[in-house]
Amino acid sequence: MSPKVPIRFLDAGLGTTLELPPHNAKFREGSSLWSSDFLISSPDTLSRVHKAFVDAGADVIITATYQASLHGFASTKMLPGDQAALPTEQRHGVLRESRPVSKDTYGPEEAAALMRTAVPLAKEAFLLRQHGAESASKGVALSLGAYGATMQPSTEYSGEYQPQRMQTAQGLADWHAERFRIFQDDQATWKDVDYVSFETLPVLQEVKAVRQVMAKLNHFHDMRQWWISCVFPNDDLTLPDGSSVSAVVETMLQNSDSGQWQRPWGIGINCTDIKKLNHLILQYEMNVAQILGSDAERNMWPWLVTYPDGAQGAVYNTENHTWGIDPEMKAKGPQRPWHEELAEIITKTAERGRWQGILVGGCCKTTPDDIKALRAQLASNAHGAYYLETG
What is the pLDDT of residues 337-389, one digit of tens each? Predict the structure, then answer.
């Protein structure tokens, strides 16, 4: 009998949770920062949302840096209510540095300092929760979203990247490496990063770029577990650039022509309609087996990382940051509860026994309540195929 598959829980949709009561967030017009804007305007609100996810049972908290970038902060105009400086604050042993802002927008040093504050904010969510000894599986995932996620309007669902250099693996690698180093080069920040998440990647060249970056920068002596997660908005289960699942998985796992590349700890699917998820996972499995060999031991497989959206027919408008209802989905009537559908998919995946482990959570339109319900559903269904790593 094969060993049980371990399951860990990720958090869910940070930006869309911020929009709900009691937070009722309004993201500033003309900015590409989205939830990262709260690193400027209301870090305490971010802290409360992170803690809500931990209280709901999340083992891994993703930082509020998905859409953060140097050019995003540079194009964000300060408002009268913004913090004029990064606060120096000792909170549960976490020191936040202070650096004055002297212009009407944020320069590279100010932007980098603000971006780094996202890590201790996520870490605090675990420190603030009063319960027993922490499991080694719990931790902070540094969110490094697609290049397109930092554009205004965002283009991670279309894969339409400009300028032309950003349509090449080298151009994207240079951009991702610069942002990665903002966190890695600061020792106080990097020590609190447990995972690195390259998420919602819509083009194959960006998957190549990320692997190139990690081959150079994820040093063996100070290595972090990391994953690549792609978005599949197309009905034919391809990336926005038309790349097939087989091409995606091959690029995620194969060595480069020039030599050995570090394989990611996890590969997966995020910000994708849950109705597509089971088919996508099956295609991932088929292609991983072809690359590793059908007789490869499970400990040779990566972790599956999956966090589908909970939109249930709602469609996101990237220009005005609002959600609308797809008339076809509305006509179909009420949808099955997200947590029930996802728990069934994860159970079937675990029963096949391929992946080394499963990290599961939610993306847009999913909340702490959804993670709590998902965890309870999987706990009630638990049998010989899987186990929850933390209680």
Answer: 999 999 999 999 999 999 999 999 999 999 999 999 999 999 997 678 999 99
123 burial via Cβ count (<10 Å: 0-12, 13-18, 19+): buried
- Answer for the pair 192, 119: CB distance below 8 angstroms, yes or no: yes
**Hey, which bits of 179-224 come out as E strands?**
195-201
Alpha carbon 337 to its chain's center: 22
Q: Which helix (H) or strand (E) holds 91?
A: strand 89-91
What does the pLDDT read at residue 319? 59
Q: Are 139 and 147 in contact (CB under 8 A)?
A: no
Determine the Cα–Cα distance for residues 275 and 341; give it in Å rounded to an integer: 9
% the chain with pLDDT above 90: 70
Nearest to 256 by CA among 300, 303, 211: 211
Q: Which amino acid is at 121?
A: L
Q: 106: which DSSP letter? A: -
Answer yes or no: are the C-beta atoms of 362 and 309 closer than 8 Å: yes
DSSP 3-state of 92: coil
- Structure tokens that stand for 171 in this block: 């151009």
> Would you call 123 helix, strand, or coil by DSSP?
helix
Examine the pLDDT at 103 and tell me if it is beyond 80: no
Quote the pTM value: 0.91
CA dist., res. 355 & res. 308, Å (int):
18
What's the rounded Cα separation, in Å, for the pair 226 and 196? 4
With contact defined as beta carbons under 8 Å apart, do 36 and 68 qualify? yes
Element (H, E) at 380: helix 368-381
Angle subtended by helix axes 169-184 and 204-217, to nearest 10: 40
Distance CA 139, CA 123 (A): 7
What's the distance, CA 380 to chain centroid? Answer: 27
DSSP E strand stretches across 39-170: 60-62, 89-91, 94-96, 139-145
Angstrom distance (rounded) from CA 323 to CA 316: 5
Using alpha carbons, list the distances in angstroms from residue 258 to 172, 215, 292. 19, 12, 19
Does residue 132 register a pLDDT over 90?
A: no
Q: What is the distance of C-alpha 170 from the center of its chain? A: 23
Peptide bond into 368 cis (omega under 30): no
